[in-house]
Amino acid sequence: MFDLAGLAQGFGIAFTSVNLLWAFIGALLGTAVGVLPGLGPAATIALLLPVSMKMGSPVTAIILMSGIFYGAMYGGSTTSILLNIPGEAASVVTCMDGHQMARKGRAGAALGIAAIGSFVAGTVGVIGLSAVAPPLASFALRFGPPEYFSLTVVGLLLATYLAGDQPLRGFIMAVLGLILGCIGLDPLSGAVRFAFGVPDLMSNLDFVTLAMGLFGVGEILVSLEEGSAASILTTTVKNVFPTLADLARSGWAMVRGSVIGFFVGILPGGGAVLSSLVSYAVEKRVSKHPEEFGQGAIEGVAGPEAANNSAASASFIPLLTLGIPGNASTAMIFAALLIHGVTPGPFLIKEHPDVFWGVVASMYIGNVMLLVLNLPLVGMWAKLLKVPYAFLAPMIMVLTLVGVFSVGNSVFDIWVMLALGVLGYLARKLAFDLGPLLLAFVLGPIMERSLRQSLLMSGGRPGIFLARPISATLLAAAALFLAFGAWSGRRRRRQAAPA
Amino acid sequence: MNAWYRTTAVLLLLVSGLVLQQSVQVLRIHEDGQPGSGFMPFGLGLALAALSLALLVKHRRRDAERRPFWERRAWLHPLLAVALTAGFIVVFDDVGAITSVAVLVTCWLWLVSRKSLPISALTGVLTAAAVHVIFERFLQTPFPRGLLF
Asked: Residues B80, B132: one domain?
């Protein structure tokens, strides 16, 4: 079950000076973007896609990007605890008790327990990833086009449904993402679609342009409208090492959070946000003092912080074994792998063991780096909150502009990015989640190819999707899930109606 | 916000109409009895139309109280940023990448962030220098040459 030889090979790769340096840079950048409100890991990975293209090795590029992703989970808690503003969506729950602890003069203990919980869960998540991914990839080798079509349908449905609280808007964004994915050359017939005579559109819409526009430029515009909260830090941070009593209270919360995060994180769309919410609810339920929750209960920080880190590691399982990214950040990593000529999926572990095991091993190392960066140096991260966003915003914009130009040397791409940025800004204002759009854009070509190949195999009969057991099971699971979602939604509305 | 969602739904209906028209008239839904290049877009056009109608129905009621899309003048900073960026793209090829970056950052800090002109100009020059070192020297990006660099 546990491929020790593979892991040893991975550590050999991860321990080279270049990979250690990029893992450290990823962890450092991830913590910084987690700390700073307004710039998430997905946007940061998007900004760095052009840089990663210049890196010779796909392992090094993915080590950097995954470091940013799980590093942001560590950093997100700092802003939640000190400012009551989640630096990351996954740290929303940490605000509830973390900031209350800070107001009672226990900011250091809250930050310390968040870092320790993140380390424990991050390590548990990577151990789970090392153990579960290889057998799952072997199983997925049985998949043909019908199974892949059903898998992408299930992945997209789950990701859209679980990621936001407005499924209808999520589905609209997913369909828009699939349509945007159709622009350019048809992968099977070579026909040009939706280019309207514009030569630059004939060779497909570029993922980097789309990601940087929607996430990079869109987030800058939203932040400009909302203004920066960076100047309100007044709390001082001291005694970051928690007491024995704190550790005793939060030990089991970390363990439960790690397990919950791992299983929720495997689900497409489940990810860090949902797992932290589930963990908080569980901690409140099992606590002997549920009345303390919301007033500064340390378990309310330890559990959710463990859960979101474990989920971040677990979300690599569907990406690396099935080729199905479950959230916006892993969709960026999916694109980066494709850019480097590595196709994520069941063959990845066999064909590119250096990439898989190198990245997994770098996560073990990255977690240790993050503990060092976040525990003794937490005061430095708190100081980062004093950098005015007024200076950061134009620099991030410049990075997106020259970054997109550097990918295709095309001014047209910059125009497209700006237009998509405005679209992303308006979508955020109307509470349309952008994650499903990006996931659909990535999954669209796989979905279309497998759909059309399946119909070719069956002579145009759609019954093929139900005739094959794995495909039928996946579609049945999706149908059951949707039916349950619709039923529970209706029940919630009925219960809310009399009130 | 219902009015804004209704407007969005109508715009999305127009997009779905365009997708359906292209799928049927420009692309082919079927080719030799097999799904063609318009097959998937046709299905997506139908799905988008159905979802847009659902959005329209969901937000059919009038708002109890009209709330503006932007709070008082909140649109100003994003609009200024978009205008400055559009200006940057227009002059990018002729003025050159490095000079454009310096001008964009200076104008942004001065007009959007309300920093003093000397501080804005200094930051603009430093940012342009950093872009030159990272992108032109380190990453070998072939930026357009302009008036100064």
From this structure: yes
